[in-house]
Design goal:
The structure is a single chain. The protein has about 650 residues and is α+β, with helices and mostly antiparallel strands. The chain contains 25 helices and 17 strands. The two termini are about 35 Å apart.
């Protein structure tokens, strides 16, 4: 939180009398200065704060504290604290931040979570054809249209999917395999979400519509679905053969066979892996590869790892990398939905799924508020551009003076001038070119206003949000008014603090005398003696001592004000109380006491500042509470109050 937030537990005690209007669904508990406080707000804060108390209170006990809390907030309002720019900015930001979770379409979010979990339960074996993006918009669109035509031809039986891949696909894998087959897709771990979504939502044997993965355009054909049989945790020892001739590869085979015999004889897999394995990433961890699922390792390795039982190791086998021995440590199945939820949410927030619930809610809100671009308003803007034969500084000036509604909705409009401000200054362009910029700017501004409208109306529609916002609103005001009347005042009112100390001096005692004064430090004995001589002949004021020494001796001398009893400070012990001199540490090797003496008991408020300040704050708090009771008009609904148990 940007400000320290006060809970009601800090609010203390107060009261006042009589009546308020009645509402069966949510009756008014009391009013302060004519502002009603509903029972629901009291219940919300009682339940929230009572959970944090070491000794829970009854509702009736909590009521007095709650009423005082509201009186303090009313005092802040009467002081105009809720109208300051700093408060409005902070509160408005809180209000928006708190509203964001409500600006999600829960049904869309639920569907995405469920689909994501289904992706965890199955793998999809897919083929695909990919065409590239192009920096030229016309060519980029041409690629997308061509891929859609390929899809149409394949679905109609007039073209073969693999043949089309060989002719047009830019996926390098096609060149090696000679077909469109790609392999298993396992959730979103290795592929962009639009591609994965197409793989999981398209029926086996069917072909997805053209999708944009961000890397290119694709059509995806699922070949089969495979149940996810979980993950295994394994270690391996590797002897690399890639790039070696037959003779050296044969030597690696002899090495792996030797290691296998050692393992059969009871040797430690971990120890051998650390010394012998030629996979540097896993060797230093005893060969540990962690958990992995299907499709994450080369086929030969995957087959062996999944066929082993926990605790067993394989015979040596070959892959494209070399010779392996695998030890399977453990396995785990697909987690439950609840167990998988944190991982799913993290993955969703990392890809475009994270924006979909918000976008779905925005679309609903646009319909709800009848928000759209006005064709007449857009045409009025375009007429200015056409009459000017293009969009340039002259057209901008004319459009900036137009209050014609271009975006319209219930309760707000977006004007032509606002649309132009959203577009900003760009080089002179033709009318056809600027129109999409107008639409984009208008839609962006409409979306912003729709969200603002929804946030403004949210307190009326959602009691949970209303209570939370009220809590933040009142909490900020409570902090500000308490700071003004108690905390900040107690630290700045030195005269009042000293007066309070003198009136209650007998409350404050020390168990032992203390040295009160200065310790002057120097970087050597000779400089210390110079400082002693200087101070003997010059008596700078206390508040000028440090500055005076700095002017005279630079960084070779410094002074520190101290208040310490014997045993509390080793330097003070040595300089004042005859204690042993501590070992030298740092550059301040020499020191002596200056302008101080040993006192038996505190002489002024600064000698016991913490205790006096706390007591003075309590005094200010009590005085403030007395004024609250007489300053603000409270009406209590006694019938509702009597129901509090």
């Amino acid at each position: 939180m940007k400000k320290r937030f006060l809970s009601l537990a800090m609010a203390a005690v107060a009261l006042a009398p009589v009546y308020a209007k009645n509402n069966d669904a949510d009756p008014v508990l009391f009013s302060v200065d004519g502002k009603d406080v509903p029972l629901s707000e009291f219940e919300y804060l009682y339940n929230k704060n009572n959970q944090q108390q070491a000794e829970p209170q009854t509702r009736r006990q909590y009521f007095d504290m709650f009423l005082l809390y509201k009186l303090k907030v009313a005092d802040a309002v009467s002081a105009g604290m809720d109208t300051t720019a700093s408060f409005r900015n902070e509160y408005d930001q809180y209000r928006r931040d708190l509203a964001m979770p409500y600006m999600l379409d829960k049904e869309t979010e639920k569907q995405l979570l469920e689909l994501s979990y289904e992706m965890m339960k199955q793998h999809v074996d897919v083929s695909h054809i990919m065409l590239p993006h192009d920096s030229n918009p016309a060519k980029d669109l041409e690629n997308k249209v061509r891929l859609d035509s390929i899809r149409t031809e394949v679905l109609a039986g007039r073209a073969d999917f693999d043949e089309m891949a060989r002719q047009f696909s830019v996926d390098n894998q096609v060149k090696h395999s000679g077909n469109a087959h790609m392999g298993l897709v396992r959730g979103t771990a290795n592929y962009p979400y639009p591609f994965v979504e197409a793989a999981y939502t398209t029926a086996v044997g069917d072909i997805s519509p053209v999708i944009d993965s961000g890397f290119g355009y694709h059509i995806v054909r699922p070949e089969k679905r495979v149940d996810n049989d979980g993950e295994v945790k394994a270690r391996h020892i590797l002897k690399l053969t890639r790039g070696l001739d037959e003779e050296k590869a044969a030597e690696k085979k002899l090495e792996i066979d030797r290691i296998y015999k050692e393992l059969q004889g009871g040797a430690s897999f971990d120890s051998i892996a650390r010394v012998e394995s030629e996979d540097p990433g896993s060797a230093r961890k005893g060969g540990d590869l962690g958990y992995f699922g299907r499709g994450m390792m080369v086929p030969e390795f995957e087959k062996v790892a999944f066929e082993l039982t926990d605790g067993s190791f394989s015979e040596p086998f070959a892959s494209a990398f070399g010779y392996h021995i695998v030890l399977r440590d453990d396995h785990r199945g697909v987690p439950s939905f609840e167990e998988a939820l944190p991982q799913i949410k993290n993955e969703m927030n990392a890809d475009e799924r994270g924006t979909r619930p918000r976008q779905a809610m925005l679309e609903k809100l646009r319909k709800q508020y009848n928000a759209h671009i006005s064709d007449e308003g857009l045409e009025a803007m375009m007429k200015v551009v056409r009459d000017n034969d293009g969009y340039d500084s002259v057209a901008i000036v004319r459009l900036q003076g137009m209050d014609t509604p271009v975006g319209v909705m219930d309760g707000a409009v977006v004007t032509a001038a606002q649309v132009v401000a959203g577009v900003g200054k760009i080089a002179r362009v033709a009318p056809k070119t600027i129109e999409p910029f107008f639409k984009e700017s208008a839609n962006r501004l409409i979306d912003s206003k729709v969200i603002n409208l929804a946030i403004d109306r949210l307190p009326e529609e959602n009691p949970d949000y209303r209570n939370l916002v009220n809590e933040y609103h009142d909490g900020i005001l409570l902090f500000e008014i308490s700071n003004r009347n108690v905390w900040d005042r107690s630290t700045k009112d030195k005269e009042g603090l000293e007066k309070y100390f003198k009136a209650h001096k007998d409350k404050y005692h020390w168990n032992a005398p203390k040295y009160k004064g200065y310790i002057v430090f120097a970087t050597s004995d000779s400089i210390m003696n110079e400082a002693k001589s200087y101070l003997a002949g010059n008596k700078p004021a206390a508040d000028e001592l440090s500055k005076d020494l700095r002017r005279k001796f630079g960084k070779e001398v410094k002074a520190e004000k101290v208040l310490a009893a014997k045993g509390e400070n080793a330097i003070v012990d040595a300089a004042v109380f005859g204690g042993a001199k501590p070992e030298k540490s740092g550059r301040w090797t020499s020191y002596f006491p200056y302008d101080g003496n040993v006192i038996d008991q505190p002489q002024e408020a600064s000698d016991v500042r913490g205790a006096v300040t706390a007591d003075y704050q309590n005094e200010l708090e009590k005085a403030w509470i007395k004024t609250l009771k007489s300053k603000h008009k409270v009406k209590i609904n006694k019938k509702v109050l009597e129901t509090l148990k």
